[in-house]
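Reopening this one. Same input as before:
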Amino acid sequence: MCTLLLVDDDEDFCSLLGDFFRAHGHVVFAASDGKGLFATLGNHSIDLIILDVMLHGEDGFSLCRRLRAVSPVPVIMLTAISDHTDRIVGLEVGADDYLTKPFDQRELLARVRAVLRRTHVPQASPVRNEIRPQLYFDGWRLDVTRRELRSTQDTLVLLSASEFDLLLAFVEHPRRILTRDQLIDMARGPTNMTYDRSIDVLVSRLRSKLEQEPKSPALIRTIRNSGYLFSSEVMRG
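Same output, byte for byte:
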């Protein structure tokens, strides 16, 4: 069971979708705008947000951008516009997945489960706990169990679920060229948006948080016509 927050100004849509997720054992809250979104986050522990793009007032892209500044809670965005540009914008502002209306409710349920699987690490996991609980690179520390990234000053750096999974793929394959297809398989999984540009956007987001000069990256290097290479040595603790 998980706790979901639906953010959509269509009350009938929220009611139907809420009933569907409750029937599958989830706790569901609903909000119609940004004020309701942040109020609910302040009062409840939310595992995942389903956020509509086309809201009255502040739109979903703007809300997701504001949300990412204060919380790593996973976000799946919904839109009535079937356009790759909108999908890319959604990824750029920090969404973990993107689905176009109309959609089959079972597909949304599958995507929710996929994002939550990536986000929530089982407490009892001998392989993870014994082999790779802490990964160190270039002064940074990645805590796999807690899914946390700490800077060289030991400051917590907020990462979305997708950003964390992509970084984990890099640090587990250091100094090796990884193609975009390989990164899609490692970091996003087959149920998500499997197109090359999505990985490029996620890499850009990671660079903005890791690199001193994101426009001239030294840590995550672009290998022309091949993919990307994580250049740092990685130590396990």
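So the earlier flakiness isn't reproducible anymore. For the record, The longest helix spans residues 105-119.
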